[in-house]
Design goal:
Distance between the termini of chain A: 55 Å
Strand content of chain A: under 5%
Largest sheet of chain A: none
Structural class of chain A: mainly alpha
CATH superfamily of chain A: MetI-like
CATH architecture of chain A: Orthogonal Bundle
Oligomer: heterodimer
Number of strands of chain A: 0
Shape of chain B: globular
Largest interface: A-B, 19 and 27 residues
Chain lengths: 215, 253
């Protein structure tokens, strides 16, 4: 197999990898916000449910969670899981990352001094205005480095989709490496992850710079 | 009467911090509240500005009731809509300034009048610029709070509070977080406001300032008003032994 054949075969996998990556971010970033808000709910029951949710998501391997999302419906309810593979992957990744993002958001929210809320309150801002105009922009700035870390981890975690026999880039690399007894596919995979994360780090640095105008 | 607080009681757990405090402030009056740490003076301000809820007592602004005595004898706050109206009557300047760090100086001053009071932007901008000029901060309008000295930040905070045109302005130890060099510029601004007949209540440790600027001084200790009156009388010839003791300790430094 020539290098260009390898690259074109793996290229299709890279697209699938990117698909997992972007869809997971698309769903988990806002979902994390919802989880965080519920985690800080004034109803103890809701808080408690969210605590358990976060504990399970962080306390068990993502690989196991993917298997559970995919095969769970069949074993629990006898539902057909044909055509459900990709949905299960996105569901598993998004639910898992939402838990991590929720905790990052929570840390950011709790780092905002009480004086900011008090100033907003005395000036007459509504609760929604206080959150969206005063608190959230400051939270975004403080959590950016942690979010960057999480996004970089996600780039590498996409390879876990092989668990559900999804042909993302790394699954293909392994197949080609085995059939051709070559290490080259792994080198290509390594370069791909490295470059992808370099781009992520570069982009996030630009975003951080955009928030540099105040401290 | 701009502010009237009657028989205010407030406890944190088992500790009663305000024990039956009554206080009224007339239009144009400058009232200084002095006293040792833990005397309840900051809590009194926080209750007056609804940052803390009182347990008992009554609060009115401009003859509009905000807190009344309920049937059970405990404090009853008026509904959210009415409370919002009453909140327009006062402003508060914090010890730690609490400016919004992500807004420029000008935006800190303009944002609430535009987005809370829904006033036209051009009008608000003109007023904000005039306020900044009064605070001697025109040249810093586009700066961010982190680029300012503490004294400048506190003057922005005063401008921000004044931009909402309150009837009464509260100051919670406005110079306590500042270097001694910077207290002067903040006190000068407050003094200027007093000359403009702004109604103010200032919790402070700056005794010469309290004596020079206020119409009335209140000395608080352990949750009660020990003594109040003309500053010359309270500072010059205090009636209560506790006041004398406090002022003596204070002069000794």
């Amino acid at each position: 197999m020539t290098l260009s054949t390898m690259l074109s075969t793996m290229g299709a996998g890279m697209l699938r990898t990117c698909g997992i990556f972007f869809l997971t971010l698309l769903f988990s970033l806002p979902l994390g916000m919802i989880v965080m808000l519920l985690r800080r709910s004034r109803f103890p029951v809701v808080q408690w449910i969210m605590k358990i949710y976060i504990a399970v998501m962080r306390g068990t391997p993502l690989m196991l969670q993917l298997l559970a999302w995919y095969f769970g419906p069949y074993y629990l309810f006898g539902w057909s899981i044909r055509g459900y593979r990709f949905t299960a992957i996105i569901l598993g990744f998004s639910m898992n990352y939402a838990a991590y993002f929720a905790e990052i958001y929570r840390g950011g929210i709790e780092a905002i001094p009480a004086g900011q809320y008090e100033a907003a309150e005395v000036l007459g801002y509504t609760h929604a205005q206080t959150f969206f105009k005063i608190i959230l922009p400051q939270v975004v700035k403080t959590i950016l480095p942690s979010v960057t870390n999480e996004i970089i981890t996600l780039v590498k975690d996409t390879s876990l989709a092989f668990t559900l026999a999804y042909n993302e880039m790394f699954s293909l690399a392994k197949q080609i490496a085995a059939s051709q007894t070559s290490f080259t596919p792994f080198l290509i995979a390594g370069v791909f992850y490295f470059v992808a994360n370099y781009v992520v780090a570069f982009a996030m640095e630009r975003v951080e710079k955009a928030f540099d105008y105040y401290s | 009467m701009v502010l009237e607080m009657k028989n205010i009681r407030k406890s944190f757990g088992d500790v009663e911090v305000l024990k039956d405090i009554s206080l009224h402030v007339d239009e144009g009056e400058v009232v200084s509240v002095i006293g040792p740490s833990g005397s309840g003076k900051s809590t009194l301000l926080r209750c007056a500005t609804f940052l803390e809820r009182v347990d008992r007592g009554e609060i009115r602004y401009m003859d509009t009731p905000a807190v009344t005595t309920g049937d059970d004898g405990r404090a009853a706050y008026v509904g959210a809509a009415e409370l919002k109206q009453v909140k327009r009557y006062f402003g508060l300047v914090f010890q730690q300034f609490n400016l919004f760090p992500h807004y420029s100086v000008l935006k800190n001053v303009m944002d609430a009048p535009i987005h809370v009071q829904k006033r036209p932007k051009d009008e608000v901008r003109a007023e904000a610029e005039a306020l900044l000029e009064k605070m001697d901060l025109t040249h810093r309008a586009d700066a961010y709070p982190c680029q300012l000295s503490g004294g400048q930040q506190q003057r922005v905070a005063i401008a921000r509070a004044l931009a909402l045109k309150p009837e009464i302005l509260f100051f919670d130890e406005p110079t306590s977080a500042l270097d001694p060099e910077l207290t002067g510029e903040v006190l000068k601004v407050i003094r200027q406001l007093a000359e403009d007949r702004m109604t103010m209540v200032v919790v402070t440790h700056e005794m010469p300032f309290a004596r020079a600027v206020s119409n009335r001084v209140i000395f608080m200790d352990r949750g009660v008003i020990v003594e109040q009156g003309d500053p010359e009388k309270v500072f010059g010839a205090p009636e209560q032994e506790r006041t004398r003791q406090f002022l003596r300790n204070y002069q000794r430094g």
